[in-house]
């Protein structure tokens, strides 16, 4: 009887290195294999990790020695790979977005329930020290009720970036642009820290990448939440660099401001530093350091040692919001956020 779980990473692209590092870091996980349909990517990963290799997910799912699969493939493959893995009895770590729209999510939910699937949804920023602190401060009620929030993300994704993967920049394979990909974490944090999202009114545009991508590079929205709370959202891939995302949470007696990777409390006009996100980062700085925590906690949990992770259900609100956001940008009307 093993006291660790065998993991296989499906998709050996840019995010796979962060998953491999998190697996290697966990005492409850072993990197057993890698899978990719692109031979050069697969060969490079096997040479790097010295583990087993698979050329298709079907081969991985047939292997009885595999306990956990990490789905690190393009967006359009997520829901079918998730469902096939759960049906095969594998535990799943899946990159964001868990699915490309709410219909797919609802379908996957039925499968996860039927097969009692164990799924970890990667929205790693919830595990950053500053976000943990904001959540604690809101829940303590010390500064009164939450009145509103805003989230801003200004990053750079140019023609070279979009040429780095055939699936990028297309509705059919990426499912959208800055909203479903880069700013998804911002949307998730607005929902996680705010109230239950009810409806969205939004606009999307392609400001700087016309002729290069068919999806939006810029979007803005108001997310109407329970208890009259509104979250304002702005995101663009048309900036000159990846700045640290910016969050503000306004409560009755103070407000919290997250910027430059620091969290500040502003109370009676005085600003004080509350927390800093000084985490070890593997991969791009803008991805943060949360993968290690959430993946480590998932394995610890599976092995009976506890640990907080983000399960299947944790994706419901961000998928509901981006789905409504895209519908609203098309209809030019306020659109309802779907729920399970
Ligand atoms: N959590 C984060 O902050 C974060 C950051 C970056 C990427 N991501 C997510 O990770 C996922 C992958 O992104 P990426 O940047 O690594 O993409 P990528 O294009 O660099 O890598 C995708 C890999 O999947 C492989 N692949 C494609 N079809 C396959 C199939 N049928 N079977 C097996 N492998 C297949 C490709 O050959 C490629 O190697 C996306 O969902 C993305 O949104 C998350």
Task: Give an account of the 3D structure.
This protein is of the alpha/beta class. The chain folds into two domains: 5-124, Rossmann fold, CATH 3.40.50; 126-285 and 312-336, Dihydrodipicolinate Reductase, domain 2 (2-Layer Sandwich), CATH 3.30.360. The chain has helices at residues 16-25, 39-49, 57-62, 78-87, 102-114, 129-140, 159-163, 184-193, 290-302, 316-331; strands at 5-10, 29-35, 52-54, 68-71, 91-94, 119-121, 146-154, 197-205, 218-225, 230-236, 246-251, 255-259, 262-267, 270-276, 335-336. Strands 14-13-12-11-7-10-9-8-15 form a nine-stranded mixed beta sheet. Strands 3-2-1-4-5-6 form a six-stranded parallel beta sheet, with helices on both faces. Helix 4 (78-87) packs parallel to helix 5 (102-114). The longest helix has 16 residues, at 316-331. The two termini are 38 Å apart. The relative contact order is 0.16. The model has no long low-confidence stretch (mean pLDDT 96). The structure holds nicotinamide-adenine-dinucleotide. Nicotinamide-adenine-dinucleotide binds next to loops.
Features:
340 residues; 10 helices; single chain; 6-stranded parallel β-sheet; 2 domains; Dihydrodipicolinate Reductase, domain 2; 9-stranded mixed β-sheet; alpha/beta; Rossmann fold; binds nicotinamide-adenine-dinucleotide
List the helices and strands and how they pair.
Layout lengths: L4 E6 L5 H10 L3 E7 L3 H11 L2 E3 L2 H6 L5 E4 L6 H10 L3 E4 L7 H13 L4 E3 L7 H12 L5 E9 L4 H5 L20 H10 L3 E9 L12 E8 L4 E7 L9 E6 L3 E5 L2 E6 L2 E7 L13 H13 L13 H16 L3 E2 L4
Parallel strand pairs: 1-2, 1-4, 2-3, 4-5, 5-6, 7-10
Antiparallel strand pairs: 7-11, 8-9, 8-15, 9-10, 11-12, 12-13, 13-14
The structure holds nicotinamide-adenine-dinucleotide (NAD).
């Amino acid at each position: 009887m093993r006291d660790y779980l065998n993991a296989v990473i499906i998709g050996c692209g840019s995010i796979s290195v962060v998953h491999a590092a998190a697996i290697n870091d966990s005492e409850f996980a072993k990197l057993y294999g890698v899978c990719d349909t692109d031979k050069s990517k697969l060969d490079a990963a096997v040479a790097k990790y010295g583990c087993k290799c698979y050329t298709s997910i079907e081969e991985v799912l047939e292997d009885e020695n595999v306990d956990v699969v990490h789905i690190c493939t393009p967006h359009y493959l997520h829901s079918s790979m998730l469902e096939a893995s759960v049906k095969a009895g594998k535990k799943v770590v899946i990159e964001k977005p868990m699915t490309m729209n709410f219909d797919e999510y609802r379908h996957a939910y039925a499968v996860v329930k039927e097969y009692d699937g164990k799924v970890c949804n990667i929205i790693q920023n919830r595990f950053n020290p500053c976000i943990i602190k904001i959540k604690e401060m809101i829940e303590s009620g010390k500064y009164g009720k939450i009145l509103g929030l805003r989230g801003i993300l200004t990053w750079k994704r140019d023609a070279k970036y979009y040429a780095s993967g055939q699936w990028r920049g297309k509705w059919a394979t990426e499912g959208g642009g800055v909203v479903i990909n880069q700013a998804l974490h911002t949307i998730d944090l607005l929902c996680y820290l705010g109230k239950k999202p009810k409806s969205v009114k939004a606009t999307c545009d392609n400001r700087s990448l016309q002729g290069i991508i068919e999806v939006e590079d810029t979007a803005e929205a108001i997310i109407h939440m329970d208890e009259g709370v509104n979250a304002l959202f702005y995101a663009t891939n048309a900036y000159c660099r990846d700045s640290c995302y910016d969050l503000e949470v306004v409560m009755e007696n103070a407000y919290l401001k997250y910027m430059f990777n620091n969290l500040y409390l502003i109370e009676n006009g005085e600003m004080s530093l509350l927390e800093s996100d000084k985490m070890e980062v593997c991969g791009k700085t803008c991805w943060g350091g949360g993968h290690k925590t959430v993946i480590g906690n998932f394995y610890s949990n599976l092995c009976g040692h506890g640990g907080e992770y983000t399960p299947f259900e944790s994706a419901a609100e961000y998928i509901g919001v981006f789905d409504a956001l895209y519908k609203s940008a098309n209809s030019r009307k306020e659109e309802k956020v779907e729920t399970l």
